[in-house]
Structure formats: structure tokens, C-alpha cells
Amino acid sequence: MPSVNSDLGLGTGPGLMLGRPTQPRRARVFMSKVSPWKVLQITFLFSIALGILTVAVRAGLWMVLDATGLLEQLSVFLTGVVGTSSGFSVDLRHTFPLNQVAAVASIIALVDVVLISVLAVLGSAVYNFVAVLGGGVEVTLTDGYATG
């Protein structure tokens, strides 16, 4: 009769434990240097995702404000405040059309991508300098099993 271990494809051997270990496994890692190139790559990807999210949220907010009629109500309010004596009317829907809002949001997102990436690389350079002086950061990793 095959054993449970061979049925699962785990094999048998002296190092195989079926129950939980008695103590959690721990690994101490010292982070003494950070690669600025890797920081740039990861930060660039995250900032691109943040930029796409920024454009989508701003365009979505404009569409929600337009669909609920809040842009028209705000235009009527501003016309009442500003244009009562001068005959000036305010129409926010035509002053700030969706394509213009999306274009400005895209420009802001591009600037954010560049700034976030540059600041992250500068931060990694500062960290590397400080890590040379102080030894870096010690991180202890565990496998997540609770003791006792």
C-alpha cells in the first residue's frame, strides 16, 4: 500500500515533517545597499500605474459631476454670484470640457512620474550613503507560524 507521502509526490525521507514545526523558522537579512537602477525600475512602474489611476479618477469625477448635474448647478451659482451686475455667465461644462480635464490630468501625471522616479533614486543614493555609515537595516523574516 502506498504511503501518504508518495501519493502526494512529496517523497519520503528523514527531513519530511507532516505536522507544524515547533519553532518558526527565522532568517535575518541585512539590507546594506540598494541598487538605484532597480529602485528606478520599480518606482517607474508604480508611478506609471499611479499616473493612469490619476487620469482615470479625474476624468471619472468630471463625468460623475456632469451626470449628476452638479456642474450645471455650480455654473448657475457662479453666474448668480459673478454675473448679476455685469451680465456675465459662467458655464463650467464648456469652460472645462472633458478632453481638457483629461489632458491636464495627463500632464500632471507625467510630471508626477518624473518627480517620483527622480526622488526615489535620490532616496536610494542617500540610503546607500547612510548605510555605509550605519550598517544598513536588519530585517527578520519568519514563516508565520505562531509559537505556543
- Measured between the Cα atoms of the first and last residue, the distance is 36 Å
- Into which percent range does the helicity of residues fall? 55-70%
Spatial ordering of strands, largest sheet: 1-2
Q: How do the helices and strands follow one another from N- to C-terminus?
A: HEHHHHE
The biggest beta sheet is recorded as: 2 strands, antiparallel
Strand content: 5-15%
Number of strands: 2
- Number of self-contained structural domains: 1
Nearest-angstrom radius of gyration? 29 Å
- Global shape: elongated
What's the helix and strand layout?
Layout: H1 4-8, E1 26-31, H2 36-68, H3 70-82, H4 92-95, H5 98-134, E2 137-142
Antiparallel strand pairs: 1-2
Helix pairs in contact: 2-5
Keywords:
single chain, 148 residues, mainly alpha, disordered N terminus
Structure description:
This protein has 148 residues and is mainly alpha-helical. It has one domain. The longest helix has 37 residues, at 98-134. It has a two-stranded antiparallel sheet. It contains five helices and two strands; from the N terminus they run αβααααβ. The protein is elongated.
In short:
The protein has helices at 4-8, 36-68, 70-82, 92-95, 98-134, and strands at residues 26-31, 137-142. A two-stranded antiparallel sheet has the order 1-2.
